[in-house]
Specification:
0% of the residues are buried. This protein is an all-alpha fold. The chain contains three helices and no strands. It is rod-shaped and about 100 Å long.
Length: 109
């Protein structure tokens, strides 16, 4: 009898240890899921159209501005010709910079 009750006690302890391990693993998985969801929400907010436009405008800061009728071919993207680059592209950049400046002024106010 003593031997049987020892085995039952060991089995009960093992079951309790298993349940503790399962519960801790579930808590860890829940924490990881929560972190992943919060990271996804932050990334979604970070990639807003306004943020992307601001990053685009900031990237233009390091660009070369070429003025004139002929743009050197080294500055053109593949498939572009100097005639397909018109001054409307530079007015788009100026308009985008104006939008950014207006947003900056509004944010500062």
């Amino acid at each position: 009898r003593k031997h049987i009750s020892e085995k039952e006690a060991e089995a009960e302890m093992a079951a309790i240890e298993d349940q503790v391990y399962i519960d801790s693993q579930k808590a860890l998985a829940d924490a990881e899921l929560y972190t992943a969801k919060k990271d996804a929400e932050a990334n979604k907010l970070l990639l807003s159209p306004e943020y992307l436009q601001e990053q685009h405008i900031l990237s233009l800061k390091n660009s070369k501005l070429v003025v004139g009728d002929k743009i050197p071919s080294t500055l053109l993207l593949p498939g572009m010709t100097s005639s397909s680059s018109s001054s409307s592209g530079s007015s788009d950049v100026a308009a985008a910079a104006g939008i950014f400046a207006a947003k900056s002024d509004a944010a500062a106010a």
